[in-house]
Design brief:
The protein is α+β, with helices and mostly antiparallel strands. About 45% of the residues lie in helices and about 10% in strands. It has 2 domains: about 170 residues, NADH Oxidase; about 60 residues, no CATH class. The chain has a 4-stranded antiparallel beta sheet, sandwiched between helices.
C-alpha cells in the first residue's frame, strides 16, 4: 500500500490540537498545492481566506456553534464559493454570466468547494497536521460576509481547521457502511442500501465498545437527530442577498 492510500484510509477528523504552530513554509506549501485542485471549466470558482489571528478564530468558533476544535486550531481556512472573479471576466467581454444565477452554477460552486476542502486536508495531513471540516459557519453566513468583506456573488460555504494534533487515542478510524451498500455496480440498489444501514448499526456499536464510546448515539439516531429539522436556515436568504439565484431559467 503506497503512502497516499495509507494516509487516506486512516484519515480522521482532529478535534484536539497541541497548540503548536503550523510552520509558515508548510502552510504556503499546503495552499499552493490546494490551488491545483480540479475545478469545473477551469473557472476556479473558489477562493480562500486564511486566518491565524487568535481573536478572529475564537469569534469563528463562537459563530459556528461554539466549536472547541476551531478555537484551539492554529489556522482556520474559510472556503468560499466565488463567482465575483468569473462575473468580472465575463462582463469585461460584454457577456452575461449565469454562474451565480443558476441552480447548476450554485451546485458547481459547492462541488468545487468540497474538492478544495479535500485537497487542503490531504496536503496538510501529508505534512503531519490534523484537520476538521467545519460546516457550522453556515449557521451565521451573513455575519461572516460582513466580517470578511465578501462582495456580491461570494458565499462562505465551509472551512477547515489546521493544527498539530494531539495523540490519537482511538484504536481504529470510525467505520463506514458496508462497501456493497456504498459502491454499486452499474445501477443503484436500494435494498443493498437499506441492508447496509442495518448492518452498520452493529458495526458501529462494536467500534464504540472497542473505543469506550458507548455514550455516542447509534448511526440511525445520529442521522435522524442531524436532519429532524433544517440545521441552517439562513442560507437561502443570505445567498439571495449576495446575488445568487437557484433557478433553471435564464433571465
Amino acid at each position: 500500500m503506497n503512502e497516499i492510500i495509507k494516509q487516506l484510509k486512516n484519515r480522521r477528523s482532529v478535534r484536539e490540537f497541541t497548540g503548536e504552530k503550523v510552520k509558515e513554509e508548510d502552510l504556503k506549501l499546503i495552499l499552493e498545492t490546494a490551488q491545483r485542485y480540479p475545478n469545473s471549466v477551469h473557472g476556479q470558482q473558489t477562493s480562500l481566506i486564511v486566518i491565524r489571528d487568535k481573536e478572529t478564530i475564537k469569534k469563528i468558533a463562537e459563530l459556528s456553534g461554539g466549536q472547541k476544535q476551531v478555537e484551539t486550531a492554529d489556522v482556520f481556512i474559510l472556503i468560499l464559493i466565488d463567482y465575483y472573479r468569473g462575473t468580472y471576466a465575463a462582463k469585461s467581454l460584454g457577456n452575461k454570466h449565469f454562474g451565480p444565477k443558476s441552480a447548476d452554477g450554485i451546485l458547481v460552486g459547492a462541488v468545487d468547494a468540497g474538492i478544495m476542502l479535500s485537497t487542503i486536508q490531504t496536503a496538510a495531513e501529508s505534512l503531519g497536521y490534523g484537520t476538521t471540516a467545519i460546516g457550522g459557519l453556515r449557521l451565521n453566513p451573513e455575519i461572516f460576509i460582513e466580517m470578511f468583506n465578501l462582495p456580491e456573488h461570494v458565499f462562505p460555504i465551509l472551512g477547515t481547521t489546521i493544527g498539530v494534533p494531539q495523540e490519537n487515542k482511538l484504536k481504529s478510524p470510525k467505520p463506514r457502511v458496508p462497501f456493497e451498500s456504498f459502491s454499486f455496480d452499474e445501477k443503484y440498489d436500494s435494498e443493498k442500501s437499506k441492508k447496509g444501514v442495518d448492518k452498520f448499526e452493529i458495526i458501529y456499536d462494536e467500534w464504540k465498545a472497542e473505543n469506550n464510546l458507548n455514550h455516542l448515539p447509534s448511526y440511525k439516531e445520529n442521522v435522524s437527530n442531524a436532519y429532524k429539522q433544517i440545521r441552517y436556515n439562513k442560507i437561502k436568504s443570505t445567498m439571495e442577498k449576495q446575488g445568487f439565484e437557484f433557478t433553471d431559467d435564464e433571465k
